[in-house]
């Protein structure tokens, strides 16, 4: 189903199987209670998600604005060094 910005709904069918039929064949039944451990043919039960899991995400060292300003200053420094090494002919 696809809904346009005007609100009309359209039903589409996937057409990739017409061009790539070998990609449309199922390979294996999926289960959500185990995951592959990396060794072929071995699985392990999914670990339980701890309640404080979101606290493990890394935090920014600088704000987005400070990161952008630092990146612009770094690029300007590169441009100045390039200009000092080989000044334009005018």
Protein described:
- The model has no long low-confidence stretch (mean pLDDT 79).
- A two-stranded antiparallel sheet has the order 1-2. Strands 3-4 form a two-stranded antiparallel ribbon.
- Strand 1 (2-3) and strand 2 form a beta hairpin.
- The radius of gyration is 26 Å and the shape is extended.
- By secondary structure, the chain is α+β, with helices and mostly antiparallel strands.
- Helices cover 29% and strands 11% of the residues.
- It has helices at residues 16-19, 64-85, and strands spanning 2-3, 9-10, 34-36, 43-45.
- It is built from 2 helices and 4 strands; from the N terminus they run E-E-H-E-E-H.
Could you say which overall geometry the principal axes of the C-alpha atoms support? extended
State the order of secondary-structure elements, H for helix, E for strand. EEHEEH
Strand order of the largest sheet: 1-2
Low-confidence spans: none
Radius of gyration: 26 Å
Helical/strand content category: alpha+beta
Q: Determine the number of helices (DSSP H or I, runs of at least 4 residues).
A: 2
Residues in helix, %: 25-40%
- Give the total of beta strands: 4
Distance between the termini: 60 Å
Describe the largest sheet.
Answer: 2 strands, antiparallel
Strand content: 5-15%
What's the overall average pLDDT, rounded?
Answer: 79
Outline:
By secondary structure, the chain is an alpha+beta fold. 29% of the residues lie in helices and 11% in strands.
Write the layout of secondary structure elements.
Elements: E1 2-3, E2 9-10, H1 16-19, E3 34-36, E4 43-45, H2 64-85
Antiparallel strand pairs: 1-2, 3-4
């Amino acid at each position: 189903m696809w809904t346009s910005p005007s609100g009309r709904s359209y039903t589409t069918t996937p057409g990739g199987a017409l061009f790539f039929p070998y990609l449309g064949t199922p390979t294996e039944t999926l289960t959500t209670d185990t995951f592959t451990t990396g060794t072929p043919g071995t699985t392990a039960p999914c670990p339980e998600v701890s309640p404080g899991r979101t606290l493990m995400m890394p935090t920014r060292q600088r704000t987005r604005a400070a990161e952008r300003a630092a990146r612009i200053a770094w690029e300007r420094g590169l441009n100045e060094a390039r200009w000092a090494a080989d000044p334009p002919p005018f």
